From TrEMBL:
<protein>
    <recommendedName>
        <fullName>Phosphoglycerate mutase</fullName>
    </recommendedName>
</protein>
<dbReference type="InterPro" id="IPR029033">
    <property type="entry name" value="His_PPase_superfam"/>
</dbReference>
<dbReference type="Pfam" id="PF00300">
    <property type="entry name" value="His_Phos_1"/>
</dbReference>
<feature type="active site" description="Proton donor/acceptor">
    <location>
        <position position="80"/>
    </location>
</feature>
<dbReference type="InterPro" id="IPR051695">
    <property type="entry name" value="Phosphoglycerate_Mutase"/>
</dbReference>
<dbReference type="GO" id="GO:0005829">
    <property type="term" value="C:cytosol"/>
</dbReference>
<dbReference type="GO" id="GO:0045820">
    <property type="term" value="P:negative regulation of glycolytic process"/>
</dbReference>
<feature type="active site" description="Tele-phosphohistidine intermediate">
    <location>
        <position position="8"/>
    </location>
</feature>
<dbReference type="GO" id="GO:0043456">
    <property type="term" value="P:regulation of pentose-phosphate shunt"/>
</dbReference>
<feature type="binding site">
    <location>
        <position position="57"/>
    </location>
    <ligand>
        <name>substrate</name>
    </ligand>
</feature>
<dbReference type="InterPro" id="IPR013078">
    <property type="entry name" value="His_Pase_superF_clade-1"/>
</dbReference>
<keyword id="KW-0378">Hydrolase</keyword>
<dbReference type="GO" id="GO:0004331">
    <property type="term" value="F:fructose-2,6-bisphosphate 2-phosphatase activity"/>
</dbReference>
<feature type="binding site">
    <location>
        <begin position="80"/>
        <end position="83"/>
    </location>
    <ligand>
        <name>substrate</name>
    </ligand>
</feature>
Length: 173
């Protein structure tokens, strides 16, 4: 299975430097422009399916980018990590705790390892159902960590890092 991964476009929380986790901010004006531009990167890539986090910022990204052009599957397992009590706090504060929270859950939330368990389950089911397909995943940093750990065999210490944006990433699974 060929997987392309793209992050959701910029949200209001991103612009305000806040950690969203499972909260549901909408896309900012910049994010709306980014989402509309996303489709251009896939003009010559024949996608069979787009799988998207059920959070609003990811849903808005796929709708603005592709409309109804492709089949879309929304799944809550593609969500960002649940920051629990840290949701809405400064992103820099939450980011500084990432390595500490690999096995330890955020208070009222989940650990990165717990998030990987749900993401790996989703990706394995996706491969079983669509092994010969080309799929675009639109999600969050943790969504990509799931691909990096499962498909590339990296450990969480290697992948939990600041995001260096690019239009999309490719994986052969």
């Amino acid at each position: 299975m060929k997987i392309y991964f793209a992050t959701h476009a910029t949200s209001t929380d991103n612009e305000n430097g806040l950690a969203s986790g499972w909260s549901d901010p909408k896309l900012s004006a910049l994010g709306q422009k980014q989402a509309k531009a996303l489709a251009s990167y896939f003009e010559n890539i024949p996608l069979d399916l787009i799988c998207v986090s059920d959070l609003k910022r990811a849903q808005q990204t796929v709708r603005l980018a592709f409309g109804a052009k492709f089949p879309v599957l929304f799944d809550s397992r593609l969500r960002e990590i649940n920051y629990g009590d840290y949701t809405g706090r400064p992103a820099a504060e939450v980011d500084s705790l990432r390595l500490e929270m690999i096995d330890k859950p955020f208070p009222g939330g989940e650990s990165y390892q717990q998030a990987m368990t749900r993401l790996h389950q989703f990706y394995r089911e996706l491969k079983e159902a669509h092994s010969e397909k080309t799929v675009l995943i639109i999600g969050h940093r943790a969504t990509q960590y799931g691909l990096d750990t499962l498909v590339l065999g990296k450990d969480l210490v290697q992948v939990i890092r600041p995001l260096v944006w690019q239009p999309y990433w490719e994986y052969d699974f």
